[in-house]
Amino acid sequence: MKWRTIAQATSTGPIQCVGPIEPSGPTLLFLHGVTRTHRDWSLVMSGLAARFTPWGLDFRGHGGSARSPRGYRVVNYIDDAVHIARDVIAGPVILVGHSLGAMVALAAASRLREQALGVIMEDPPFETLGKNVEQTVFHSQFLQFRDILKGERWHSVADLAKQLAEVRLDNPQTGQSARLGDVRDEASIRFHASTLATMDPECLTPIVEGDWLAGYDWKTLASSIDVPVLLMQADPDRGGMLRDADAETLRESIHDLTVVRYPEVGHQIHSLARESYLATLVPFLESIHPPDLPAQI
Questions:
Q1: Distance between CA 257 and CA 252 in Å, rounded?
Q2: Which of 152, 178, 208 is the last residue of a domain?
């Protein structure tokens, strides 16, 4: 599969996106989580390219996309997805998002009424990274990530990976603390270092300050969705971010919602349990088709 990269002009600067040169089926737009890039989806996109037309983007402040003086709240990222869907894809699309990308997918589907055919949300954090984020283990993690990037005391991905491995995961609820290098393998930490190395540290400021969700009314957005939605929930005891209460709110608000839980799998479901992820994703995608495309099973 040959891929092309496009730097799409927007009012905040270019947004980088990647897609196949030759389309091969229904179009998917993959939306990554905070601190990641479209490369987080590489194996998933390549695995689906024979049957679907997968596109991925780098949100503002991440990867090859421009940094944004307007800030990095969740609401700011929505424009990036809408721009790529309208100006690059310009046709029916299924939105596939992880974490931040899942929350953006929900909002983008509400704005892309004539284009969005469905939404896949993988472990959206919602209130976990809201105003009470200081009560979670993720606050110390993101605060240390930001401090490391701002400190600029690294000169290579290898240097940055070593510093990430020493990040302490402090849980204010239990008083327990763990070293990142003891709960993640070295390869995953090195890959994460490679995406963090391209990120604006200020992307993390709204999160650590508890202001990330300002202006983002996910409950109202959920009530406005009239396309099929797949919700994938990771295990909170393994680092999953979607709370049971928030998942239940989505179940009550979205008419056509399919929920799949992944016991003993952490937040990065598509990486940690890729086969199970694809075994859930593909049948759901096959159940969604534009009116002019026959089902192909």
A1: 9
A2: 208
| Amino acid (1-letter code) at residue 48 | L
- Residue ranges of alpha helices (H) inside 166-258 are 180-183, 186-196, 205-208, 218-224, 244-253
SS3 assignment, position 94: strand
Measure CA 50 to chain center: 23
Neighbour-count burial of 147, counting CB atoms closer than 10 A to its CB (0-12 exposed, 13-18 middle, 19+ buried): middle
Q: Is residue 68 part of a domain?
A: yes
Q: How many domains does the chain have?
A: 2
pLDDT digits (tens, 9 = 90+) for 74-87: 999 999 999 999 99
The rounded distance, in Å, linking the Cα atoms of 123 and 269 is 8
| DSSP-assigned beta bridge partners for residue 213 | none
Of the CA atoms within 13 Å of residue 208, those in its CB half-sphere come to 13
102 & 141 share domain: no
Residues in CB range of 217: below 8 A, 6 or more apart: none
Give the tens place of pLDDT for each residue, 78-114.
999 999 999 999 999 999 999 999 999 999 999 998 8
Euclidean distance between CA atoms 239 and 106, whole angstroms: 22
Helix, strand, or coil (residue 272):
helix
Low pLDDT (below 50) residues in the chain = 293-297
Q: Could you tell me if 139 and 115 are in contact, meaning their C-beta atoms sit under 8 angstroms apart?
A: no
Residues 107, 180: Cα–Cα separation, whole Å = 32
Q: What is the pLDDT of residue 207?
A: 98
